[in-house]
Amino acid sequence: MKNGKQSSQPEKGSSRILSLTVLFIALCGFSFYLGGMFCSERVKIEANDVTSANTKAVASPMKPTVSPLQIKSVSFPECSSELQDYTPCTDPKRWKRYGVHRLSFLERHCPPVYEKNECLIPPPDGYKPPIRWPKSRYQCWYKNVPYDWINKQKSNQHWLKKEGDKFHFPGGGTMFPRGVSHYVDQMQDLIPEMKDGTVRTAIDTGCGVASWGGDLLDRGILTISLAPRDNHEAQVQFALERGIPAILGVISTQRLPFPSNSFDMAHCSRCLIPWTEFGPPVNYNRRWRGWNTTMEDQKSDYNKLQSLLTSMCFKKYAQKDDIAVWQKLSDKSCYDKIAKNMEAYPPKCDDSIEPDSAWYTPLRPCVVAPTAKVKNSGLGSIPKWPERLNVAPERISDVHGGSASGLKHDDGKWKSRVKHYKNVLPALGTDKIRNVMDMNTVYGGFAAALVKDPVWVMNVVSSHSANTLPVVFDRGLIGTYHDWCEAFSTYPRTYDLLHLDSLFTLESHRCEMKYVLLEMDRILRPGGYVIMRESSYFMDAITMLAKGTRWNCRREETEYALESEKILVCQKKLWFSSNQTS
């Protein structure tokens, strides 16, 4: 048909159709070839991935058959100095757009594309390179986190104290006036498993300045400190400035971005979570006078809490003074009783609720029971730390193609890669680098290879990739789900090293590259480093964008000098806004 009329040349039309068909098939074949060429080995978590690293070492490098991606030169402008502590998805300026029910306005609410900033966030006036670990646990530069409100409100509780040009952290807290170490000693007396490697991962809700998590680091326990973004306290920013793992978050209407059965321990000390309604004080018989209430009311709240926890298959484990401990039961019979009781509240979650779904997943009033097919997920069933790091968790079988041999191979691969990284970036493994993020991990192999270095690693698993985060936690490491089309839940200038492996190969079809680079610049400290391991196809484009962020970059070979893959090592400059005096 031509212009709505039948063509008078059917032979040419037929040949045209045939040509188009051949062209379509050729294009499909070519796109399939490109897809196979640029698909990262990380996507294929299969048994055939267990190929000896030596095979790669002797293989002759293949020359790229497709020209690298090219983009125009770009130079990003400075943001206003008002944005020096900008957190895009938890921006106080946008809170009024959202509801106040259960403080849901404090949850993640990311700006649409047309509201995204395309500029570089400046540091505060007078910013200095952070004090290095372990001294940073006890002090930080005032100008790096210049919050006078928290100093005035919490100095009497020994959270922190401003002296000269520094904040000092004496290790106090609202509920541990004798110091956090004494408080944790009391806790360990009640929970012996904190001493022998049984308890390895913990979460601290309403973390203050993360003194509890900081103290536990010396005791072999890795803690994620959690607190919401607020106008004054900047709890998470203080924690990360000290070199202690932390992330922005609030328990409200959505699940926290972690899989089920992630943590060995959860802690709350005056964290303001309404466990029942608006309580409860554990030590109500002594504390009730200070809360403008009666002993009877506080006892009622405490009993409600006890009843609620019992109905959720928790048992009272121990209590002394202000510390009460409940233990989550691993006994299947308790959860079976909930399932059989139609009037139970909260009920057992039905099969439509995926236990590990945790990225913008509504928080529902139901109990997640242990998975029947995972029989050894209880705390007493998995190996103690550090043995658990190198033992394949039972939940690896939930990953398509996941296996013990695949985990062993992955660890061996990352040991080799990290050894090479330390040659191209000598600062890695020294006190110059403390807060590290692996932006798209699989099993946490990069973090495992750094476990003996003075660093901690936030392992990020894409919300659009295979769900391997349960394996990361079961190994005794920490991490979170995230979508790199959005901003990460942290303050600016909070990480010393960002590492990515084929992130743009995997996500560039969804996420615009410039926004990912701008977000990396936001969360990277001045003087901090970036290691980007990426396909040669994307390397020129990434290098051009990195220059636009004022980073100093150099291209390095991989450990096997493959033509198809390169490493870009960058360092962020320290610069100040043209509107500031420094």
Automatic annotation (TrEMBL):
Segments passing through the bilayer: 20-38
Topology with respect to the bilayer: Single-pass membrane protein; Single-pass type II membrane protein
Predominant place of localization: membrane
Subcellular location(s) of the protein: Endomembrane system; Membrane
Database matches in Pfam families: Methyltransf_29
Taxonomic superkingdom: Eukaryota
EC code(s) of this entry: 2.1.1.-
Ribonucleoprotein in keyword set: no
Keyword Oxidoreductase listed: no
Database matches in InterPro entries: Put_SAM_MeTrfase, SAM-dependent_MTases_sf
Keywords: Glycoprotein, Membrane, Methyltransferase, Signal-anchor, Transferase, Transmembrane, Transmembrane helix
UniProt record similarity statement: Belongs to the methyltransferase superfamily.
The protein's name in its UniProt record: Methyltransferase
Source species of the chain: Brassica cretica
